[in-house]
Amino acid sequence: MNQSAVTKNPVSDGVGRALEISLRGADELLPQDEWIKKLARSETTGQPLRIKLGLDPTAPDIHIGHTVVLNKMRQLQDLGHQVIFLIGDFTSLIGDPSGRNSTRPPLTPEQIKFNAETYYRQASMVLDPARTEIRYNSEWSEPLGATGMIQLAAKFTVARMMERNDFHDRFKAGNPIAVHEFLYPLMQGYDSVALKSDLELGGTDQKFNLLMGRHLQQEYGQEPQCILTMPLLEGLDGIEKMSKSKNNYIGISEDANTMYAKVLSISDTLMWRWYTLLSFKSLAEIEVLKAEVAGGRNPKDAKVLLAKEITARFHSAAAAEAAEQDFINRSKGGVPDEIPEVTLSGAPLGIGALLKQANLAPSTSEANRLIEGGGVRVDGSVVSDKGLKLEAGTYVVQVGKRKFARVALG
């Protein structure tokens, strides 16, 4: 991203700073000149801009990849603008086809309601709930009715809809496209009309839908919104985008110790990408850290700062400090202060069955695989015998680096 528009159109320090904050970590800001004009008008009139983020509650939990756009919303919120957290309870009934090679199964209203409540509670860990407008797109989508839906559908052509990559690729491959999927970008675009949005945020995979909002606002005689796309955050592996299905994610409701340890597990290269997209430190502060690491400082020092910042955001500063100490203890082979306590019966009990019953392994066969890999310890000693039977007593059982249980066996 560049800021050439600033030099072409001299702007106030306040607008320049707001533009810099808008561009930080962003993939695209379109059209940038229009956004500068909106910022300048807002500064002159004192009227906050309306900034929209829509999320379909397709799953109950948010991972930190989702917070990339939420962080940007918070930054713009802190500049004094009105942020709108839009829950797509109506569009979830259709299912977003973005990036899909098959029709997405729609959710039930019960699933949507449950997920929406969880989503907002978790999003409030990033946004200031007192300054956030919460809306549901069923408010204006359901009253449209059949007549309104037909009138809306008349404002966009099939040819233009087929320019969309996922539709184009599916059609070319002979994969079915259901007619209702064409309604999704139309309904998301109509949200911008209903909310009179000045700026809509989304991931890079949402660009077509965001541009639809601009098109429909013009069709309805409104000033079109600008769009700001944010990159999709790479997960713990540093390769694939963060996803629960790929198990390379950090859930924002995970416990502090797990969250801290997961951040520390990322590569030194990925760390700087995460700093840009997830940290609330200024770019100047991040550049100082980078220079220190380039000058010989251990990159782990920078990673520890990032892990503590992210953990504190979703827990507390005290929890982040405790997580750091817990990680140090584990790396030295120590036992965390607080571990689950489990009471089992059936002594003498085979180690495989004990691991399964204590929820330290999903099955006896997986327990045996862990033992073969040297990943199981009882009272600090590595277990190498899959046939080991434990007599009655209390044991500290460890699986891998992070799973512990104090097992009372009777």
TrEMBL record:
<feature type="binding site">
    <location>
        <position position="244"/>
    </location>
    <ligand>
        <name>ATP</name>
    </ligand>
</feature>
<keyword id="KW-0648">Protein biosynthesis</keyword>
<keyword id="KW-0030">Aminoacyl-tRNA synthetase</keyword>
<keyword id="KW-0963">Cytoplasm</keyword>
<dbReference type="InterPro" id="IPR014729">
    <property type="entry name" value="Rossmann-like_a/b/a_fold"/>
</dbReference>
<dbReference type="GO" id="GO:0005829">
    <property type="term" value="C:cytosol"/>
</dbReference>
<dbReference type="InterPro" id="IPR036986">
    <property type="entry name" value="S4_RNA-bd_sf"/>
</dbReference>
<keyword id="KW-0436">Ligase</keyword>
<protein>
    <recommendedName>
        <fullName>Tyrosine--tRNA ligase</fullName>
        <ecNumber>6.1.1.1</ecNumber>
    </recommendedName>
</protein>
<keyword id="KW-0694">RNA-binding</keyword>
<dbReference type="InterPro" id="IPR002305">
    <property type="entry name" value="aa-tRNA-synth_Ic"/>
</dbReference>
<dbReference type="InterPro" id="IPR024088">
    <property type="entry name" value="Tyr-tRNA-ligase_bac-type"/>
</dbReference>
<dbReference type="InterPro" id="IPR002307">
    <property type="entry name" value="Tyr-tRNA-ligase"/>
</dbReference>
<dbReference type="GO" id="GO:0003723">
    <property type="term" value="F:RNA binding"/>
</dbReference>
<feature type="short sequence motif" description="'HIGH' region">
    <location>
        <begin position="57"/>
        <end position="66"/>
    </location>
</feature>
<dbReference type="InterPro" id="IPR024108">
    <property type="entry name" value="Tyr-tRNA-ligase_bac_2"/>
</dbReference>
<dbReference type="Pfam" id="PF00579">
    <property type="entry name" value="tRNA-synt_1b"/>
</dbReference>
<dbReference type="Pfam" id="PF01479">
    <property type="entry name" value="S4"/>
</dbReference>
<dbReference type="InterPro" id="IPR001412">
    <property type="entry name" value="aa-tRNA-synth_I_CS"/>
</dbReference>
<keyword id="KW-0067">ATP-binding</keyword>
<dbReference type="InterPro" id="IPR002942">
    <property type="entry name" value="S4_RNA-bd"/>
</dbReference>
<keyword id="KW-0547">Nucleotide-binding</keyword>
<dbReference type="GO" id="GO:0005524">
    <property type="term" value="F:ATP binding"/>
</dbReference>
<comment type="similarity">
    <text>Belongs to the class-I aminoacyl-tRNA synthetase family. TyrS type 2 subfamily.</text>
</comment>
<dbReference type="GO" id="GO:0004831">
    <property type="term" value="F:tyrosine-tRNA ligase activity"/>
</dbReference>
<comment type="function">
    <text>Catalyzes the attachment of tyrosine to tRNA(Tyr) in a two-step reaction: tyrosine is first activated by ATP to form Tyr-AMP and then transferred to the acceptor end of tRNA(Tyr).</text>
</comment>
<dbReference type="GO" id="GO:0006437">
    <property type="term" value="P:tyrosyl-tRNA aminoacylation"/>
</dbReference>
<feature type="domain" description="RNA-binding S4">
    <location>
        <begin position="349"/>
        <end position="410"/>
    </location>
</feature>
<comment type="subunit">
    <text>Homodimer.</text>
</comment>
<feature type="short sequence motif" description="'KMSKS' region">
    <location>
        <begin position="241"/>
        <end position="245"/>
    </location>
</feature>
